[in-house]
Structure formats: C-alpha cells, structure tokens
Amino acid sequence: MKEVEVMVADESHEIYVDTILHTITEAAKVRGTGIAQRTHEYVATKMREGKAVIALSKEGQFAGFSYIETWGNKQYVTTSGLIVHPDFRGLGLAKRIKDMTFTLARMRWPNAKIFSLTSGAAVMKMNTQLGYLPVTFADLTDDEAFWRGCEGCCNVDVLHRTGRKYCICTAMLFDPAKQHGEEQTLKFSMESLKEQKD
C-alpha cells in the first residue's frame, strides 16, 4: 500500500500547483461535469496563506489537494477543489483530505457556516458524515465574488437561467449553531491536526 502524508500546504508546495490544476481539469473531463477554473496564482496564494491541504507520497509525488476560502465577511467558508490523483485513488485519501480541510476551517473560523457545491456522490457522502445538510442555493452566501467562480463552469447557463436558484451541483451546508455532540469529535480532530503541524 502506498504511504501518503496529508498536511497543511505552505509556500514550499507551490511547485505542485500546475499538476494540481491539470489533475482537476482532467477529472472534470472524465466525469463530464463542470468545474470552477482557478489560476496558478490563486492556488499558490491559498498555500502561502495556510488555507490549503496537500497530500504527497513519501517519494514526493502529488497525491491530492483541497483548499478553503471565506465569503461574506467570513460568515461562510467553503472547502473546495478536492482532488485525488488517479494513481492514489481507492486509498481513502479523499476522506483524509476532506476531514483535514474541514478541521482547518473550523479551527480558523469556528462560528462560520461551511458550505459545499458538488456534483459528486462521494463528496456528498463525506459531507453528510461531517454533519452537512442539503440546502437551497438561497441558504448559501450572497457574496458575488463566490458566484463569479461559477462562470468558468460549463453548466453556468443553468445557473443563469434559474436566477441562481439551483444548478447541476447540490448545495450542502454545515451550520455550527445547529450542531450537537460534534465538539468532542472536533476537539480530537484539532489535536490531530496540531500534532501533524508540530
């Protein structure tokens, strides 16, 4: 079994940005779904700000990635761009990355609502396990900067036609104010993340 380390990314990981973007684009083509396009500088900035998680093999091969972003004056957070390289699929890596980005978001913005727009069944399942619930697009941020990110998606015409009420993606939301009994799990996750960073 391949050994893979999942960690909070920093500036030293910028060498992987083009590989990350290529892997995301290719995965969207295979699935036949849309994807919000991100630039090299956008992803590199997430790394420099400590708002990204990267997975690497012991040999330094890129294995997976995701990042977090805040919207609406930090009232909302997204964990986005989750990707696992084809060479590392089937190892449970997506869940490890998702769990770490979720924990990172909760540590940095504990009162923010965390949301996800996804067309993937696997991501929906992971979101559900973390406490996300399906919601309408009206329950998400009204921050125009977030919605501009959808302009690069091949399905953006659906979003426009429906007046931004729905699209191909499913909206899911984690609201910390409505969670019960998850604090112990979060405390454990935060301790694990702290150990990983030390």
Strands, helices and their partners?
Elements: E1 4-8, H1 17-31, H2 40-48, E2 52-57, E3 62-71, E4 76-84, H3 93-108, E5 113-118, H4 121-130, E6 133-135, H5 144-148, H6 156-161, E7 170-174, H7 183-197
Parallel strand pairs: 4-5
Antiparallel strand pairs: 1-2, 2-3, 3-4, 5-7, 6-7
What does this entry look like structurally?
The chain is of the alpha+beta class. Helix content is 38%, strand content 22%. It has a 7-stranded mixed sheet with strand order 1-2-3-4-5-7-6, sandwiched between helices. Helix 3 crosses helix 4 and helix 3 crosses helix 7. The longest helix has 16 residues. The model has no long low-confidence stretch (mean pLDDT 86).
Task: Give the SSE string.
Answer: EHHEEEHEHEHHEH
Main beta sheet strand tally, sense and closure:
7 strands, mixed
Strand content: 15-25%
Compute the average pLDDT: 86
Number of strands: 7
Number of helices: 7
Question: What does this entry show, briefly?
Answer:
The protein has 198 residues and is an alpha+beta fold. The chain has helices spanning 17-31, 40-48, 93-108, 121-130, 144-148, 156-161, 183-197; strands at 4-8, 52-57, 62-71, 76-84, 113-118, 133-135, 170-174.
Main attributes of the structure:
198 residues; 7 helices; seven-stranded mixed beta sheet; 22% strand; alpha+beta
